[in-house]
């Protein structure tokens, strides 16, 4: 069954807005080949992916406490701008270089534990603003702010092709991709049914989670080019904050993030966020254009940056807002 798009354009003050959302799908369809998924196959893919990600994490760039780009600090929190190529946290292997370790070495924490400073994270390839807690009160308060979605974050990204609408929203549910674990994809009825026979004890609870409602708002900052290839600079706001949400949503509207080696052209995850080519909007970036941009940007960092963050201080209750300029 093909996923159908419902596309709406709304004129707002001389600019257009596009809303992208899948139409409801019929559940009266019989079982398909997608349902013939073997637990052993999924587990084998998961194990292979884990080893690959371990190797990538080990390649995190080292950063010292003195080299941290500090945006703000007080007795309770530290706000820093993370460079691309650095892990936010070391992961299971604590010997991996990470921003968390550098911040802990420089500032320490009330608990004496670096993991008790972490309230959110950015992917290794994403640059931009990260907040760390120095005190237990700040940790509790920041966790509450993130859990209740009382923090506003905006990202800046370059995406392939020229996005037609000046602003809009992308509302597509996300799920774990059993075909390309541990990555994410747009959830469809067929792919949800394919999970039915998987053994939770073998593949884990995360693989079998229900689809996550996900909403991204975007605004075109400028339409540019990279070596003569069309790209668009977008301001992105992740309303729901799901794993890899911005990457999947951009790919699913046919405009993957420039330099995205996972969800972009020839990436490790499912192409187009898991959607079929025919399900994408008319303004999608062609495969030829995506390939040309991938070649032009080979070896360069992914072009997505956590540009701004606003929240009420977890202890002093002061309203705070910070910005960091993208390097691309």
Entry keywords:
328 residues; alpha+beta; eleven-stranded mixed sheet; two-stranded antiparallel ribbon; 27% strand; disordered N terminus
Task: Characterize the structure shown.
With 328 residues, the protein is α+β, with helices and mostly antiparallel strands. 21% of the residues lie in helices and 27% in strands. It is built from seven helices and 13 strands. The strands form two sheets. Strands 1, 2, 3, 4, 5, 6, 7, 10, 11, 12 and 13 form an eleven-stranded mixed β-sheet that branches. The chain has a two-stranded antiparallel sheet with strand order 8-9. A hairpin with a 6-residue loop joins strand 12 (304-312) and strand 13 (319-323). The chain is globular.
Gist?
The protein is of the alpha+beta class.
